[in-house]
Amino acid sequence: MVVDDAQFMRLRVTKLLTRYGHEVVEAENGEEAVRTYCLLKPDAVLMDITMPIKDGLTALSEIRQFDPQAKVIMLSALGQQAVVLQAMQRGARNFLVKPFDTERIIKAIQQVLKRCEK
Predict the structure, then answer these.
(1) Which residues of 39-60 are buried (b: 16+ CB within 10 A; e: fewer)?
(2) pTM for the full model?
(3) Tens of pLDDT along 61-97?
(4) Alpha-carbon dihedral sign for residues 84, 86, 89, 91
(5) Domain count of the fold of the chain
(6) d(CA 33, CA 117)
(7) Are 74 and 87 in contact (CB under 8 A)?
């Protein structure tokens, strides 16, 4: 699942993941992400931090309450150490700073999904 309030970012990441054989669902804010996660329980989530209605850190916490094994990778234009630390403390599996390159995002997804198979 790709979660970002910017439609162009969701489209970019969805196209990339689809090209690598992944099936993708999208959400445009944290509230929609939590609702979609609970319905579909996707294998992995790529989620922005700064979004309207419900931010990514709050959504991360709620998703992890629903599913402690949830594989969530946070995306943010913010490179602040405090935000990274907070995301990791709430259970994020990785943190990518925008703009990111194709290799980094694919590698992060592969690592998270590999852990999922074990």
Answers:
(1) eeebebbbbbbebeeebbbbbb
(2) 0.90
(3) 999 999 999 999 998 876 667 788 888 899 999 888 8
(4) negative
(5) 1
(6) 23
(7) yes
Give which of 62, 60, 117 is closest to 94, Cα–Cα.
60
Q: List pLDDT tens digits, range 20-73.
A: 999 999 999 999 999 999 999 999 999 999 899 999 999 999 999 999 999 999
Q: Are 42 and 1 in contact (CB under 8 A)?
A: yes
Q: Are 79 and 107 in contact (CB under 8 A)?
A: no
- Whose CA is closest to 33, among 11, 6, 2, 12? 2
CATH of the domain at 57: 3.40.50.2300
